[in-house]
Amino acid sequence: MSQIPTLYALSNSSLLFDASHLEPNNVLSIQKKIWTLAEYCKQSGDFTDLVPAMNSLTLYLKDAQNLNKWQKALLTTWNDIKSTSFKFQHHKINTVYNGEDLAYVAQYNNLTTEDVINIHSKTHYHVLFLGFQPGFAYLHGLDKRLHTPRRSEPRTKVPKGSVAIGADKTAIYPADTPGGWHIIGQTSTQLFDHTLQTPCLINPGDTLEFVPCSLSEDITHD
After folding, report:
1. Considering the domain boundaries, does residue 222 fall inside one?
2. Four-residue CA torsion sign, 28, 30, 31, 32
3. Does residue 99 sit in the same domain as residue 150?
């Protein structure tokens, strides 16, 4: 298998940088370099948008004449960058662990509900990328003891702020939406606000932890 990222021209002004075939057993290491590469490209001022996904990056150029330049530069930059230079924020999310699927997740994994809460809240998660809906962060690091297949029948409406588990990931629903993940808790933290200059509270590369609290305490975000 090639250890060189693959580069595709999607149009005369957009590129897909694909590193998904590199180190398949260490996706977080590759993802950290993706975040660093995106930040480097952002600082150049040559792009209208940069979209990190799972071990890949889609780049939209302001000027199509720069396409050849970046086709050459991206691979060189990838080899030179250090993922440790990436700057990120850490978020603490107050969470009321009262989700309607909490007991099911516990039963499926031969745990108590208290076990689920303790395991889920004692991990620092990495935000791999945003997708599905604005502000929906796919979080890496869910303990294997909590891995639970998605629901066989998705709900037509998952309430805004639901903290949920789907297979080997955990996430927070930023708005009411259909969804097939198991709801284990709820938070009042506002994840997306289109009126703000930076509409997403959480961004790719950030870290996050869930802080168990009571319903009355779930009023702030640190």
Report:
1. no
2. positive
3. yes
169, β-bridge pairs? 166
Cβ 5 vs Cβ 17: under 8 Å: yes
How far apart (Å, rounded) are the C-alpha atoms in residues 26 and 110? 28
Residues 24 and 109 both lie in one domain: no
- Is 1 part of any domain? no
The answer to whether residues 71 and 102 belong to one domain is no
Per-residue pLDDT of 137-193, as tens digits, reads 999 999 999 999 999 999 999 999 999 999 999 999 999 999 999 999 999 999 998
Query: What are the backbone angles phi and psi of residue 137, rounded to the nearest 5°?
Result: -100, 125
What's this model's pTM, rounded to 2 decimal places? 0.77
Amino acid sitting at position 12: N
Give the DSSP H or E segment for 16. strand 14-18
Residue 52: HSE in the Cβ half-sphere, 13 Å Cα cutoff: 25
Report yes or no: 199 and 191 within 8 Å, Cβ to Cβ: no
Beta-strand pair 155-158/137-140: unpaired
Task: Indicate if 77 and 118 belong to the same structural domain.
Answer: no
Q: Are 188 and 218 in contact (CB under 8 A)?
A: yes
Tell me the three state secondary structure of residue 43.
helix
Q: State the CATH number of the domain containing residue 58.
A: 3.30.1360.40
